[in-house]
Specification:
about 140 residues; mainly alpha; 2 helices
């Protein structure tokens, strides 16, 4: 009976050692798989980050272009039918040490009316509608 118990202990010890080695092998394979998976995910995220940075730069360039004074003036003239103010329309002066723009200054009792829109030679504005000068 003692020999049986000794062989049973040997078999149990061997089975435990094999189970422990198998567990360590599975843990190693799982950890390597996670490292590779995380590396691929990191690569995808870095590519997306580069794409988003390029998109941000393109949008910043577009905003700068849209905000440029020349483009805004062209848009105001062509799409909105606006024109620069007529001479004497904008009155600037100082009142109490502050610069005042667009108010009646120095006793002027009337400011000139708004400037007329630009009239195209074909009689049309940039939006396709006919443009006519407003009557005075």
């Amino acid at each position: 009976m003692r020999a049986f118990r000794a062989s049973l202990a040997t078999v149990a010890g061997t089975a435990l050692a094999v189970a422990l080695a198998a567990g360590l092998g599975i843990l190693h394979v799982w950890s390597r798989t996670e490292v590779y998976r995380t590396g691929y995910e990191l690569g995808k995220l870095e590519a997306e980050n580069r794409r988003l940075l390029e998109e941000r730069d393109a949008l910043r360039t577009e905003v700068a272009t849209l905000r440029s004074p020349g483009r805004l003036e062209r848009f105001a003239r062509e799409q909105l039918g606006m024109a620069p103010p007529a001479p004497g329309t904008v009155v600037a002066g100082t009142v109490g040490g502050k610069v005042v723009v667009g108010e009646v200054v120095d006793g002027a009792d009337r400011r000139p009316g708004p400037a007329e829109p630009v009239v195209r030679s074909a009689g049309r504005t940039g939006d396709g509608r006919g443009a006519r000068r407003r009557p005075h």
